[in-house]
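Changelog excerpt

This revision adds worked examples to the README so contributors can see how folded entries look when concatenated. The first example is reproduced verbatim below.
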Amino acid sequence: MPSRPERARIHADLDEIAPNTFIIHNDKVRPVLRGEGVTVGHTFELVSPRRQGLLGRLKARGFNVRTLESRLERLPRLPAAPTLGPLISREIGGKERWSVFDGNDLRWREIRPAEQNGKSVISLQAGSLVRRRRSRTGGDFFQVERAKTGGVNLLPLSDSEAVLRGYAQATADSDIEIEVREREGGYLLPLDFVLPQSYLEMLRCTGAQTAEGLLIGQAGWPFALMTLHRLNLRPSLGDAEVELSPTFYDPQPAGDEDWEEEDGDGDGGWDGR
């Protein structure tokens, strides 16, 4: 068997994709799972109350387990909010489409160019987060900076980093309330705003995708709340200051210290086009 660090770089042996629901990536964990829940194919559902004991046994045997708790703890924190400055003009190419992260509705908003002396010109605010597209791909992301000469400097960012900095700006003074609708047995979270990819993936572990948004039951709601709170978002319904109960909390996530996250590029959610 490969060492745990080698296996962790590939994937977790057991990966929690919903509350107490795991994907088995390494069949050698199956004997440890026996008697603790229901296994169908490569999906294991924990039904016994011995969650912490099971995770401890898996870790003692060298298996790497990624839990929802460890997913949550590895979400990137909001950075310092970039300071906004003056407007700066920039000439753009004919095929370029520019958008700015709008902190009022957490979406990319198109910047409409003006014509000056036969050229297309846009106004960018120093400190703002922008996206440039030259095709239908995801595009390039930047933080706008004022050059010493008075022109525009563009600091390249990943899409996730750009969105995180946009959230830091949007919530610098206060949290933002987002719409949540009550549904039988849980809450509906419409995903009509941009999220960093890692946060979107975490939220998708808490509920089921529907045409209206993410339907989150009672078991997943505490995880969803903590994910939203990390972005300084407050749901309009069901908000509370929550901590994981002992049923879910793993003081030392089983083997997760060796887990290496995949690159979270992809701006996630709805891109505001």
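The second example, added in the same revision:
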Amino acid sequence: MTRIQRLIKEAKESCTFRGHQMKPFSHKYKKWSSSECMVCGMICNVNADPAPNEIDICGEAVALHCRYEGEPDPMETIVEENRFEIY
């Protein structure tokens, strides 16, 4: 298994854990691939040869849970719950 194949496998596992349904990874360049969630459109990028200041797996789909169409943003709900009225 090549490095790019291993990184794509790890990225798919991470995205699936977050609830995403990812499209097949497309190879944009020799050592760089990307995919998009079919539900929410968040992206995951894989770089098999990152520069010293880059990371190999990145994107919103790796870091955030999948938001279905019409589902409210959880951060907005938290803000509304913690809002205090000042009289």
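Reviewer comment on example two: The chain is about 30% helix and 20% strand. The mean pLDDT is 84.
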